Structure formats: structure tokens, C-alpha cells
Amino acid sequence: MVNIGQMNQLNIVKRTIYGLFLDGEDLGEILLPKRFVPDDFTVGEAMNVFLYLDSEDRLVATTQQPKAMVGEFAYLTLKSVETVGAFMDWGLDKDLFVHYTQQTRDVVPGEKYLVYLYLDESGRISASMRTNKYLKDMPESSPLLNQKAKILVYAKTDLGYKCVVNNEFDGLLYHSEVFENLKLGTVTDAYINKIRPDGKIDLILKNSSGDALDDIASLILEKLAANNGTLKVNDKSSSEEIAQVFQVSRKKFKTALAGLYSKRVILVTEKGIELVKK
């Protein structure tokens, strides 16, 4: 099935002075303009192209890769503001349109905003800043709990960073779980730590499973070995001190530390921790 606003594998039907015509199935033949035609091609072979309506509402193909496709969220730069709406840079020659009714506040060229891409009633690809209507709540019984997810960081609040989770759900990454410079627009991996009754998601960057705690324990031992077997940090150290050295929360550090202590691998002193001499 051929889809507007998505990447499609379409077969080359013929070459003309205007470019290549591709088999759009029920949508008919679709032009790939001459400037996008590769040097080497064979009639009948498939090409990976993106489909959209041009400025004259004609269905065309391009080999350019958009920063997002229909049905996806993206954190994009606003290029210009006009009477009927605004235009954003999304990686194609034709800018992405945001109708003024789809704007939630005054927008400024050069600033970035979270948007959701959709097809309007005319089949044109448009963007909406009214993203809450597209973000879903996650059921508390979801099998995604404790699983790795892809997140898009889009806002910073007093509690932490708001994120789009798996291009579908709304999540929050608390400041206490962040130990790096996290920029808005960052796409990275996180773990679904908790699903709240309202369907919103609490995220963590590092998994709290046994394997993750083993990783923290290994990091503690590596730091000790590199520092002549001693470190001036222990279970009484502040969250800031622990985060500076290990980039993990105080709770996880203490859990990993307790595991090493129970195995008699380390000693915990008033000044810090030490490797047990064998």
C-alpha cells in the first residue's frame, strides 16, 4: 500500500525529461523530479522515496529524508511566520506548515517546538503544536513496564524533563534520574520505571534491574582500582557527590554498594570505601 507522508518502495515505470515516473498503484504514476533522479537506475527497479503534495497540491516523490513522518512527533525549528500560519524546517525543500489554529502560543523564528505530523482534510502534510490530543495514556497493565523505550525530550519543568515515549505516550524523566547535560530535542533510550494511575509514565535512564545494579557495582570496582583502592565517597555521601562520580542516583549506588559489602569485596569507612586486600 502506498502512503502519503511515509517512505515507500516504488517501482520505476519510465524516464521523461521531467524525471522518473514511479508506480503509485491506486494513486497512479508519481513523478520523482529530475533533481532527485540518481545517476544509476534501471526501469522496473524499486526506489525508496517519500511522498507528499507539492505547492500545487500535486503528489510528488523525493529522495530527501524528512526529520519526521506522518503519525510521528518531532522537535523542529520554526523558519517563518505568515498570516495563515508558520513554516518549519523538517528536512525537505518544501517547509512543513503549521496552521495558526494548530499553534498553542506565539511562535518565534529560530525557536524549536514539539509538533505532531498529520494529514489535513486535503491530504497535505501539516504539523500541530496541540500534541496533548495525540499523546496516549499507557495502561497500568502494559507489558512495557520496566522495558527499554525510545524517548524524545521536549520540555524541562521543575520536576524534570517531559518526554514522548515510543512516539506514542507521555512520560517524565525526573531531575534526580539525570546525570548528564540533556538537551531538548534529544532522542535516546530510557526505561519505563512506573506507570501512574493517570496513564503517565515515570522514566529512568538506567535500568533498575539486577543486571543494571551489577553494572553499577562493576563501575564502583573500576573506580576503586583506578584510584589505588580507595574513594572518598560512601553510603553517607550526598546525592550530588555520588552523581558527580558515578552518574547514578544515591539509592542505586547504595544498593550496589551493599551488594559489594555483603560479598566482602569492599570496606565502608567514615572517609569512604576501600577495596578489601586479598
Ordered list of secondary-structure elements with their pairings:
Blueprint: E1 7-16, E2 19-23, E3 29-33, E4 46-53, E5 59-62, E6 73-81, E7 85-89, E8 96-99, E9 112-119, E10 125-128, E11 148-156, E12 160-165, E13 169-174, E14 187-195, E15 201-204, H1 210-226, E16 230-231, H2 239-246, H3 250-262, E17 266-268, E18 273-275
Parallel strand pairs: 13-15
Antiparallel strand pairs: 1-2, 1-4, 2-3, 4-5, 6-7, 6-9, 7-8, 9-10, 11-12, 11-14, 12-13, 14-15, 16-18, 17-18
3D structure, described in words:
- This protein is mostly beta strands and 278 residues long.
- It folds into four domains: 7-62, OB fold (Dihydrolipoamide Acetyltransferase, E2P) (Beta Barrel), CATH 2.40.50.140; 73-132, Nucleic acid-binding proteins (OB fold (Dihydrolipoamide Acetyltransferase, E2P), Beta Barrel), CATH 2.40.50; 148-204, OB fold (Dihydrolipoamide Acetyltransferase, E2P) (Beta Barrel), CATH 2.40.50; 210-275, Orthogonal Bundle (Arc Repressor Mutant, subunit A), CATH 1.10.10.10.
- It is built from three helices and 18 strands.
- The strands form four sheets. A five-stranded antiparallel beta sheet has the order 3-2-1-4-5, with no helix packed on it. A five-stranded antiparallel beta sheet has the order 8-7-6-9-10, with no helix packed on it. It has a five-stranded mixed beta barrel with strand order 11-12-13-15-14.
- The mean pLDDT is 91.
